[in-house]
Design goal:
Protein name: Non-heme iron oxygenase ferredoxin subunit
CATH architecture: 3-layer Sandwich
Number of helices: 0
Radius of gyration: 13 Å
Order of helices and strands: EEEEEEEEE
Number of domains: 1
Pfam family, one: Rieske
Keywords: 2Fe-2S, Iron, Iron-sulfur, Metal-binding
Organism: Leifsonia poae
CATH superfamily: Rieske [2Fe-2S] iron-sulphur domain
CATH class: Mainly Beta
GO molecular function, one term: monooxygenase activity
């Protein structure tokens, strides 16, 4: 089990929330389908916090230069970013969100 980061009710639909676990910054998103995702919070193009960006469907867009990252795979969907961000395993237990910063998903 990972670290508790918040309750599910604290997450706003289609809005990223920045959390830091053991020094690892992450953007946590509850999408419009109710699924919770956690990806690396730092854009691979410009060292910008992705949690300040825009959620649309299953993507998180960097507010600075417009690169969109898949919440599922971490892969950038357009330039200028071309390197993926890590995707972390999320567990929902009794209405709480748990994330392990050492458990990245392989997509």
């Amino acid at each position: 089990m990972g670290t508790r980061v918040c309750s599910l009710d604290e997450l706003v639909v289609d809005q990223a929330t920045r959390v830091v676990i053991d020094g690892v910054p992450m953007a946590v998103v509850k999408d419009s389908a109710g699924d919770v995702h956690a990806i690396g919070d730092t854009c691979t193009h410009g060292e910008i916090s992705l949690s300040e960006g825009f959620v649309e469907g299953e993507t998180l867009e960097c507010w600075a230069h417009g690169s969109q990252f898949s919440l599922i795979s971490g892969k950038p969907l357009n330039l200028p970013a071309y390197e993926p961000v890590p995707v972390y395993q999320v567990e929902l237990i009794d209405g709480d969100v748990f994330i392990d910063p050492n458990a990245t998903k392989e997509i």
